[in-house]
Amino acid sequence: MPPLPAHIFEQDTVGLTPLISASPTGHPVPLGSPHKPGRCRPVTRRVLGEGTAPGRARGSGWGWRAGGGLGAPTPAPGREQGVGRGVCFPLRGRPWSCFLSAFARAPNTPHRLQPARCLPLLPGGPALLPAMLLLPLLLEATLLQLASGSYHPFYNGFYYNHVMNDKGNGHEKVAYFNGAKLVVETPRDPVYSSSGANVTLPCHYRFEPDQEGKRKIRIKWSKLRDDYTKEQDVLVAIGKTYMAFGDFRGRAHLHQGGRHEASLVVSDVRLQDDGKYRCEVIDGLEDESDVVDLRLQGIVFPYQPPRGQYRLNFHEAERACQEQGAVIATFSQLFQAWSEGLDWCNAGWLADGTVQYPIRLPRKPCGGLHLAPGIRSYGPRHRHLHRFDVFCFSSALRGEIFYLERPAGLTLEEAKQACQDAGAEIARVGHLYSAWKFLGLDRCDAGWLADGSVRYPIAKPRANCGPAEPGVRSFGFPSKGRFGVFCYKER
């Protein structure tokens, strides 16, 4: 058989697929290649021989014909006795990625098929008859394509969902839902609490329209991370059975006071509990969720270690805050502190790995005179290589702070021992800031803290006690000197 003319095909061959046609009984039978019966031929996306080919007369395409002989051009319609007109067309998709050849034949046409040139059909006239005869084949092929391919679920008053069997064989199970829409609701406003307290995070769900009878509902609570990494599992529950995870084990349980309530109760709230929580309700294959924001009442303070300014990478910054009875602050906590008046011209780490600093009064060394007040940002920094200060967050105290002094003062080691003798421990920086913020601690006497710094809190500014604004004053980290000491004792 001579090679097929190049103008019949596109250049991008898409695969090999058996050709089929109709037998005298009307059933599809495989059509072999001119060389090897039952095999495949190269196919392309569409036939380009719908009109006159370049350099050829009308009516000289390639196709299949009845009878013997190869390669001879077929005359125009009606010029050869007993030869029907052939129509070649592609059907895409599995398993129809090859050409499907169909023929309308005269009664005297033999049923042995061999390759012949395809006769292009002209609009109107006798060409309509073969096209009408092809419609059943086209309809059948389209239905098979829809049955074998995948399609998107749709909505017609009920909810549908596909369940794949993970075997890739096309056998799917379709779950039919009862038409009820699941809705989960949590409060829009933040829920406030403090360190050591108990808090309830409200969550309710309902069905639209309402559903009668008991349903096997699964509840899942998780905590969103500030750096948008994988959520932290908090609790899962089915009915009255639940399980808490990690730091929430023994502190979290589900409150189901109402019929459709899925509220989370957290006892002995800790600093790291501050953040956003997701309440997820699962009903079979349907699930919906909403987010509730838990905010601890606390204070943000800037911190730098005894070694000096900009000495902490991210991981060292986290440890530094923990050692001072605090945690590394989030952006929302820093923003809240800025809105309450915090102004600090040294950049510090935040919990999401970014480096930022709050400015209330624009000035040249702090981003320039012409920038508006706000949070200045360096963006995300390398957590190992880059070094800055840190912003820490401390909540309300669960104990008390008191001041000890001696006539001759105390060294740092003597100060630690004095607090132990009083049944307490030397206070940390976070303790002092919290006492100043929430207890109104005011002392115009400097005292040692656990990190070796010397500070004092002023709630009511006055002469000889520092600047005119309230705050915690610092003498830095003196290597020598004798001062009083601030001690902390839990209730």
Structural description of this entry:
12% of the residues lie in helices and 34% in strands. It has 491 residues and is mainly β. The strands form nine sheets. It has a six-stranded mixed β-sheet, with no helix packed on it. Strands 21, 22, 23, 24, 25 and 26 form a six-stranded mixed β-sheet that branches. Strands 27, 28, 29, 30, 31 and 32 form a six-stranded mixed β-sheet that branches. Strand 17 (252-255) and strand 18 (263-266) form a beta hairpin. The model is unreliable at 1-123 and 149-176 (pLDDT under 50).
Condensed summary:
This protein has 491 residues and is mainly β.
Number of strands: 32
Q: Provide the number of structural domains.
A: 4
Strand order of the biggest β-sheet: 11-20-19-14-15-16
Secondary structure category: mainly beta
Protein name: Hyaluronan and proteoglycan link protein 3
Domain Ig-like: 181-292
Family: Belongs to the HAPLN family.
Subcellular location: Secreted, Extracellular space, Extracellular matrix
